[in-house]
Amino acid sequence: MMGQDRQLWAGMLAHLKTQYPALCRQWFEEIEPIGIDGGVVRLRTLTTIHRDYLQRQCLDAFNDAARTVSKMLLSVLFLGPDDPLPRVPPRRADGHGAEIKPSVLEPQHATSNGVHPALERAARGAGAAATPSPAAPVWALTSTPTRPDTDSLVINPDYSFDHFVVGPSNRLAHAAAVAVGNSPGRAYNPFFVHGGVGLGKTHLLQAICLKIKEFQPQTRIYYTSCEGFMTQFMDAVQAGEMSAFRHRFRDVDLLVIDDIHFLAKRERTQEEFFHTFNSLYQAHKQIVLSSDAAPEEIPDLEERLVSRFKWGLVTKVEPPCYETRVAILKNKARIRGMTLPDDVACYVAGKIDSNIRELEGVITKLQVLASVEQRPVDMGLATSALGEPPPKTDKQVQIQTIIAAVTDFYGVKITDLQSKRRQRSIALPRQVCMYLARRHTRYSLEEIGGYFGGRDHTTVMHAVRTVEERRELDSDFAHVVVSLESQIKNEIA
């Protein structure tokens, strides 16, 4: 590329980071700009998955970045690693002999002759002034790369196995999904994963698709939701196009359907899916399904479907434990190119224990707040993101107050807590101190560990997790912790 083109691309990245922080990913830096021609900024992506994701999820933002930075009506065209460059006719002169520059697009009024959709969008965005006359010529792009079926769901490149955090709650489901990705149609067929909302089921489904596409790029994959299947079925029935519908869902190598539990009470749709399932299974094609409930727990689901869903492997994902939540937060931040301090990750993981989707929502909010306020991610920003009041500057809980309350209750000395002794009579009060310090002070994990014999942050994280788990299982212990918290708050009241 010429220097000016490189400058445009650098400006586009900067614009995306400031105006669309939640959209940005670290792999944007690996997109290769390959020049501007005919008013089109051409960008080469790492894979066809990246290309399709950008085309369907990020096109408007990239177009805005190109136009804002260049001050011209440019459009962005995403190309896969093997997509040929489109051919654009050379510059011409208009009726008055004035040259039309390639960086300014002439709007088009037809799309049936191979015009790339990005050019049409650019024309529409130009407003009334850009409305073409009936005689206006159309610039066509040939060899346009194939786009994914718009009825299928977009696959997110972030949802790979490399970015899936494995923990006790999802270890079996992850191992099974990897096996399916390595040997589709042979390992576990069908593969049925179920669990609560936002626990990583969709991540596993898309990771299977990405894995298969990486090593078997010619594999025909159809990934959709149960709602998408039902909608397309009803549309096909009304339009009398059942043959096309069956071809779309049965002539594939891998069928992936999310939220299959929505088949409940849909008798006609269940009948059609039953035959679709049989057709694929008998042809040794892989079927992957996800649900909020186990097959036998889906209400009003035909017994024959329940039986078939259990032919392969049924596995469950559980809510992640504290340590896994911390790892998930740091992984999500790394994907977005964010620096997430350990104390912030631990703080958020301690506050949100329901599902991964909420954790990702906090990461998005932190990224936006950091961009808007032009400040690094810290504990103050984290409390703002979670909607909690800022900490008071006076009458803060001190670790010394916590240590005094705990040592008095358990009858131990502060020197014991700071020693290397691991007897249960010492270890438990030490863990309670660390837990209370984490919850009621602004000190970092490293600072808390420093108060107890110079222990590192992982020891503090383990202590917090241990106390949390014991509180849930032991009501007497939970009462002790609550009493200590009340005593500490009374000390500073």
Which descriptors would you attach to this protein?
alpha/beta; 20 helices; Helicase, Ruva Protein, domain 3; 493 residues; GMP Synthetase, Chain A, domain 3; five-stranded parallel beta sheet; Rossmann fold; three-stranded mixed beta sheet
Supply the number of structural domains: 4
Count of DSSP H/I helices: 20
- If you consult CATH, what is the topology of the largest domain? Rossmann fold
Major sheet description = 5 strands, parallel
- Given the helix and strand composition, which structural class is it? alpha/beta
User: What is the second-level CATH architecture of the largest domain?
Assistant: 3-Layer(aba) Sandwich
Count the beta strands: 8
Order of helices and strands: HEEHHEHHEHEHHEHEHEHHHHHHHHHH
Strand % is: 5-15%
Distance between the termini: 66 Å
CATH homologous superfamily placement of the largest domain: P-loop containing nucleotide triphosphate hydrolases
Query: Rg, please?
Result: 28 Å
Query: Which CATH top level class of the largest domain fits?
Result: Alpha Beta
The strands making up the biggest β-sheet line up spatially as 5-6-7-4-8
Given as residue ranges, the uncertain stretches (5+ residues, pLDDT < 50) are: 91-148
- Helical fraction: 40-55%
Mean pLDDT: 82
